[in-house]
Design brief:
The chain has one domain (about 40-235): Rossmann fold, CATH 3.40.50. About 35% of the residues lie in helices and about 15% in strands. The chain has seven helices and nine strands, in the order ββαβαβαβαβαββααβ. The chain has helices at about 25, 50-60, 80-90, 110-125, 140-155, 190-195, 210-225, and strands at about 15, 15-20, 40-45, 65-70, 95-100, 130-135, 160-165, 180-185, 230-235. It has a seven-stranded mixed β-sheet, with helices on both faces. A two-stranded antiparallel ribbon has the order 1-2. Strand 3, helix 2 and strand 4 (about 65-70) form a beta-alpha-beta unit. Helix 2 (about 50-60) packs across helix 6 (about 190-195), helix 3 runs antiparallel to helix 6 (about 190-195) and helix 4 (about 110-125) crosses helix 5 (about 140-155). The longest helix is centred in the N-terminal third of the chain and has 15 residues, at about 50-60. It starts with 12 loop residues before the first strand and ends with a strand. The chain binds zinc ion (ZN). The site of zinc ion has 6 residues, from loops.
């Protein structure tokens, strides 16, 4: 079945073989680039990473990549949000770090050089081969600050540097054009389970996050797979 003929939700195959089980395709997967290394994902708040790149993080972890989910601040309900974040990280198979640990804080509670210092520490400790974080077009100022902080950390080490789409509980139109698409057909449900682990955020407030499945479906259609997450590329380093 050709990709364009595939009914919605059907496994996409070429020559009768599933694209995802084709070893030649797997070998050039996003995750294959980072096997044996560490990828660090940095989010301003709990749940940002799941919304922005949960499927990608789960795919990396499933491939054997060490994935660290770093959350910069927990603005409210500290114990609950940390507990939810731990559950979510376990679902995605990732290690969790809270940078401003010990109590509720906002990004703006620290000076910019202190924030960069925290992010520097992360890069020094984990020596990531890739970093995923917010992008500069996000409408949430905290998110943009984390992006700029991670831009600064590039002076310490060379790593691939990606931005995920703007993350939000209620959809707001903001510009974001992916330049890399990660097949998350096998991890989209894991992503949604990880988002659902943030019980205090979505259903409890009458909010839905199913539109993240819709976004992944549209991105998947762009590249001929069932579901994909889009990343913008800030920097790629080749040997
Ligand atoms: Zn956030």
């Amino acid at each position: 079945m050709h990709v364009s003929d595939a009914p919605l939700g059907a496994a996409i195959t070429q020559g009768g073989q599933s694209i995802c089980s084709d070893p030649a395709v797997s070998a050039r997967s996003f995750a294959a680039r980072y096997v044996g290394a560490t990828v660090v994902a940095v989010g301003a708040h709990p749940d940002d990473l799941e919304l922005g790149a949960g499927g990608t993080l789960a795919a990396l972890s499933a491939a054997g990549v060490q994935v660290v989910m770093a959350i910069c601040s927990v603005p409210a309900d500290y114990d609950t949000r940390v507990s939810e974040a731990k559950d979510s990280a376990a679902i995605l198979g990732c290690e969790l770090r809270i940078l401003m640990a010990g109590g509720c804080k906002r990004i703006e509670d620290v000076k910019n050089h202190q924030l960069v210092g925290l992010l520097d520490g992360l890069v020094r400790e984990y020596k990531p081969l890739a970093v995923l974080t917010h992008g500069p077009t996000d409408f949430h100022h905290d998110h943009v600050q984390i992006y700029h902080g991670m831009v600064a950390t590039q002076r310490l080490a060379c790593f691939d540097f990606y931005s995920f789409l703007p993350t939000m509980c209620r959809p707001v139109p903001v510009p974001f054009q992916p330049r890399a698409y990660i097949d998350v057909s096998h991890t989209i449900d894991t992503k949604l389970r990880a988002i659902a682990a943030h019980k205090s955020q979505f259903y409890a407030r009458g909010l839905t996050f199913e539109f993240y499945r819709d976004i992944a479906r549209v991105n998947g259609r762009m590249v001929g797979v069932e579901y994909a997450e889009g990343l913008d590329i800030n920097k790629l380093v080749f040997a």
